[in-house]
From TrEMBL:
It comes from the Bacteria. The chain crosses the membrane at residues 42-59, 231-250, 270-295, 302-322, 328-348, 360-376, 388-409, 416-442, 448-467. It is a multi-pass membrane protein. PANTHER family: DNA INTERNALIZATION/COMPETENCE PROTEIN COMEC/REC2, RECOMBINATION PROTEIN 2. Gene3D superfamilies: Ribonuclease Z/Hydroxyacylglutathione hydrolase-like. Keywords: Cell membrane, Membrane, Transmembrane, Transmembrane helix. This is DNA internalization-related competence protein ComEC/Rec2. It comes from Pseudomonas typographi.
Length: 740
C-alpha cells in the first residue's frame, strides 16, 4: 500500500518539474499505458502514470482558462462576484472576481483586480466593471517570488485595473465573514483587534509592517496565518476534551468515546475552516486531518507513513496545482520531518523533551527549503516557537474563538476578547525582545553540487538516536551556510538588469565589489527595492554595496532607494541630480570624468553639465571588462546623447542599456553610430502606458542588426561582461506556467 500511494504521489508531484505540458495525444497514450499497467497489476508504474496524466490534464485546464492574447491590454465591461476578503491598500483596493462574464468576449472564470481610488468593495457583492485586462504575467528575478506560479495555483486567469464600475447586487452570501471581521476590529482588545481577526478569520489586512517584520524575525509568521497548525490545534483541543472526559470516567459508557472524539475534531476543523474562508491551505489541512483521524479510528496498525501519504495523495488529486505553492511543501515537509525525527522512539519522554524537541527538529528539517526559496531563517525561531506555540494554542486561540462566538451576548464576548488581547500583548512583547536579539537571516542558496550532501546530512541529524554516527551529518549540513560560492573571475563583471517593470535596476558585481545602478519604481512599502532588489541581492550573496548610483530623480529609478539604504550597507552614494532627492540619503553629485577600477574592471562616469531637466541630467556609467563594454545610460534624451558624443569621442560600447526605456526621444542615430553597440538591454514593463520601446527606436535597433533583450519578454537579464558571452534571460529557464 505504501509503495502504491508513493507512486501515485510521485506522479502527481512530477508536474511541478515539467518545462512544458505534454500534448493531448501523449496524455491519452499515458492514460492507456496506465490502464494496461493496472490491468496487469503493475501498480507502481500504473499509478505513477495515472497521477502524472491527471495532474497535466488539470494544469492544462488552468492554462486554457488564461486570458486570450488578443484581449491583453483591452478594456472591457464585465460582471462577476467578489470572493474572499478585499484588501484596501492606501488609496486602492485589491480583490478577486469570480464567475466572470462579458458580452464581447470569453474571459477567464477568475480575475485578480485592483481599483485605484475606488469605492468600498465587500465580499459576495456582484459588480459590473470596466477593466483593462492583462495576462497573468509576473516578474522573473533571481531569488524572486514566482508570481505566475502563484496565480496559476489560484486558477486566476488574468489580472486587471478597474477604470469604472457600479454595484449590481449586495452580497447574497459570504458577506458574514466581512461583517464579522469589521465587528472584531471594533472590539477593544488592548490594541490587538487586527491580530485576533487574523487568528479567527485569516484576515491579515490590519497587521502592520512592523508586526509582520517581528513575526518574520522570530520565525512565527505561521501563527498568524491560518494553516494546518491552527486547524490541528483546535481539532486537538476538541479531541482531547472528549478523551480527557473518558479518561476521568465522566464520559457516558453507552457512547464510544473514540468515534465521538474524531467526529468532534473533524467538525471543529471544518467549522474553523469556514470561518477562515476555506482557502487552499485550510482545505489541505482539513484533508490531512481527515486521513489522520480515519487512521486513528480504523487503521492504527498500518503505521505512520500511510496517513501522511494518504493525505498527500488526497490533496493532490483534489487540486494538483497545490504543488506550485510553497505552503504545500512546507506543511507536508514539517509533518514528514516530525515523523522521521520523533516517530518510532522507544521509551517515554519527559515533559520538557516533548515540548522542546519538535522545535529544533523543525528548524533543522525546514531550513534547506527556506534557503532554497530565498526565505528568511530565524536564529531565534526555535526558542520563539517554544514559547509562542503553546501560548497561542492554549492561552489565545481557543479563547479567541469562544469570545467571537459569544459576541452576540455583548459584554461576555467582548470581555473574553479583551483578555485575549492582553495575552497577545504579552506574547508580542516577548517576541519583540527576541527579534531585537537577532533579526531573520537570508542565507544565499548553495551551489547545486552541495544539495545532495545537505539532504543526506539533514536525514542523518534527524535519524533516531540509536543510529550510530548521527553527528557525521553536521559536516554536510553545514554546507547549507558555508558552501563556497562561485566567484566572478578577475577582470570580468557579472551584470544583472533586474526585471522591475517600468523602471530600472542594474546590479554589477566584480570579484570583490558590488554596484547598484538605480533601484526600480514604487513608493511606500510597495516598491521594487523591497519586492525585487533586496531578494535578488540576497539570492546572489550580496550583503553590502560599495556604490549606489541613482541616475536621476524620477520615481521609476529611485522608488526602492529608501528600502535598499535601510537594509544594506552602502559605502558610496551618487546621483545625477541629488538636490532633488531626500537630503538624509547623503548623495554625492555625479562628476564627469570620475573613474575607478575594481578587480580589473574599469568604471567611468559622465553627466551633461548643461542639463536643465532630470532625464538628461542622468548619471551615465561606462563599464569595461576585458575589452568588452556596457553603457548604462539612465534616461538621457537626444540632446544629452549629442553632448555625450561630443565630449566622449573615444567611448564605444558593445552593450547599451536602452536610454529612457526605448523612448522615442532617445536612442538617436548619432548615439548608436558613435557607440556602435552589438546589443541592447531594454528595461520596461509589460504593456506600459508609454508605449516603450517605441516602434521607431526598435526600427533603428533592427536596422543596425542589434540583438534586443527585453526584461518584459525575457525576465531579468544576465551578462558576463568580459567573457564575450551572450545575454541570458531568466525566462529561458522553461516552466510550463510561464508566459512566453
Amino acid at each position: 500500500m505504501v509503495l502504491r500511494m508513493a507512486a501515485l504521489a510521485a506522479g502527481l508531484l512530477a508536474l511541478c518539474g515539467l518545462p512544458a505540458l505534454p500534448p493531448a495525444w501523449m496524455l491519452a497514450l499515458g492514460v492507456g499505458l496506465a490502464g494496461l499497467c493496472l490491468a496487469r497489476r503493475w501498480w507502481a508504474p500504473g499509478l505513477f502514470l495515472l497521477g502524472l496524466c491527471w495532474a497535466c490534464f488539470s494544469a492544462q485546464r488552468a492554462l486554457d482558462d488564461r486570458l486570450a492574447p488578443a484581449l491583453d491590454g483591452q478594456t472591457l465591461w464585465l460582471e462577476g462576484r467578489v470572493v474572499g476578503l478585499p484588501r484596501h491598500d492606501g488609496q486602492s483596493v485589491r480583490f478577486e472576481l469570480d464567475h466572470v462574464q462579458a458580452r464581447r468576449a470569453r474571459l477567464p472564470a477568475s480575475l485578480r483586480l485592483s481599483w485605484f481610488a475606488g469605492p468600498e468593495v465587500r465580499s459576495g457583492e456582484r459588480w459590473r466593471l470596466a477593466v483593462t485586462l492583462r495576462a497573468p504575467r509576473g516578474q522573473v528575478n533571481p531569488g524572486g517570488f514566482d508570481h505566475e506560479a502563484w496565480l496559476l495555483a489560484q486558477r486566476i486567469g488574468a489580472v486587471g485595473a478597474v477604470k469604472d464600475g457600479h454595484r449590481l447586487a449586495e452580497a447574497a452570501s459570504g458577506r458574514w465573514r466581512g461583517a464579522l471581521g469589521e465587528r472584531l476590529r471594533q472590539v477593544d482588545a488592548f490594541g490587538y483587534e487586527a491580530v485576533i481577526a487574523a487568528l479567527v478569520l485569516g484576515d491579515t489586512r490590519g497587521l502592520s509592517v512592523a508586526q509582520w517584520q517581528m513575526l518574520q524575525d522570530t520565525g512565527t509568521v505561521h501563527l498568524l496565518v491560518i494553516s494546518g497548525q491552527h486547524i490541528g490545534l483546535f481539532a486537538g483541543l476538541l479531541y482531547g476534551a472528549v478523551a480527557g472526559l473518558a479518561r476521568l470516567g465522566l464520559w457516558p459508557l453507552r457512547w464510544p468515546w473514540l468515534p465521538v472524539a474524531c467526529a468532534a475534531a473533524m467538525a471543529g476543523a471544518l467549522g474553523y475552516g469556514c470561518l477562515a474562508g476555506f482557502a487552499v491551505p485550510v482545505q489541505r489541512a482539513c484533508a490531512m486531518l481527515f486521513v489522520v483521524l480515519l487512521w486513528r479510528l480504523r487503521f492504527r496498525r498500518l503505521g505512520l507513513a500511510q496517513p501522511l501519504l494518504g493525505a498527500l495523495c488526497a490533496v493532490l488529486v483534489f487540486e494538483p496545482l497545490a504543488s506550485l505553492r510553497q505552503g504545500f511543501w512546507l506543511s507536508f515537509m514539517a509533518v514528514a520531518v516530525l515523523l522521521l525525527a520523533l516517530g518510532g522512539r522507544l521509551g517515554g519522554w519527559k515533559p520538557w523533551q516533548a515540548w522542546s524537541r519538535p522545535q529544533w527538529v523543525l528548524a533543522i528539517g525546514l531550513m534547506p527549503l527556506l534557503v532554497a526559496w530565498g526565505l528568511p531563517v530565524s536564529p531565534t525561531g526555535p526558542l520563539a516557537n517554544l514559547l509562542a506555540v503553546p501560548w497561542v494554542g492554549v492561552l489565545v486561540l481557543p479563547w479567541a474563538l469562544l469570545g467571537t462566538a459569544l459576541l452576540a451576548l455583548g459584554p461576555v464576548g467582548e470581555w473574553l476578547l479583551w483578555a485575549v488581547g492582553v495575552s497577545l500583548a504579552g506574547l508580542f512583547r516577548v517576541l519583540g525582545a527576541l527579534a531585537a536579539v537577532s533579526p531573520a537571516l537570508y542565507v544565499p542558496a548553495p551551489p547545486a553540487w552541495a544539495w545532495p550532501a545537505i539532504a543526506a546530512g539533514s536525514v542523518l541529524l534527524l535519524a533516531p538516536a540509536g543510529l550510530p554516527g548521527r553527528w557525521l551529518g553536521m559536516a554536510p549540513f553545514a554546507l547549507l551556510v558555508w558552501a563556497p560560492a562561485p566567484q566572478v573571475a578577475h577582470g570580468q563583471a557579472q551584470v544583472w538588469q533586474l526585471d522591475v517593470g517600468q523602471g530600472l535596476a542594474v546590479l554589477v558585481r566584480t570579484r570583490q565589489h558590488a554596484l547598484l545602478y538605480d533601484t526600480g519604481p514604487g513608493s511606500g512599502e510597495r516598491n521594487a527595492g523591497r519586492q525585487v532588489v533586496l531578494p535578488s541581492l540576497r539570492a546572489l550573496g550580496v550583503g553590502a554595496l560599495d556604490t549606489l548610483v541613482i541616475s536621476h530623480a524620477h520615481l521609476d529609478h529611485y522608488g526602492g532607494a529608501a528600502t535598499v539604504l535601510a537594509s544594506v550597507p552602502v559605502a558610496r552614494r551618487v546621483a545625477g541630480d541629488p538636490q532633488h532627492l531626500p537630503p538624509q540619503w547623503r548623495l554625492q553629485p555625479c562628476e564627469s570624468g570620475h573613474a575607478w577600477a575594481w578587480d580589473g574592471v574599469r568604471f567611468s562616469q559622465w553627466r551633461w553639465a548643461d542639463a536643465r531637466e532630470s532625464n538628461p541630467a542622468s548619471c551615465v556609467l561606462l563599464i569595461e571588462a576585458g575589452g568588452e563594454r556596457l553603457l548604462l545610460a539612465g534616461d538621457i534624451d537626444a540632446a544629452a546623447e549629442r553632448a555625450l558624443v561630443a565630449e566622449r569621442p573615444a567611448w564605444r560600447a558593445d552593450w547599451l542599456q536602452a536610454p529612457h526605456h526605448g523612448s522615442r526621444t532617445s536612442s538617436s542615430a548619432a548615439l548608436l553610430d558613435h557607440l556602435q553597440p552589438t546589443g541592447v538591454l531594454v528595461p520596461r514593463g509589460t504593456g506600459n502606458r508609454f508605449g516603450h520601446p517605441h516602434a521607431e527606436v526598435l526600427a533603428r535597433y533592427q536596422a543596425r542588426g542589434l540583438r534586443i533583450h527585453d526584461t518584459a519578454l525575457h525576465g531579468a537579464l544576465q551578462l558576463h561582461l568580459g567573457s564575450y558571452d551572450r545575454v541570458r534571460g531568466l525566462r529561458e529557464q522553461r516552466r510550463f506556467w510561464r508566459l512566453r
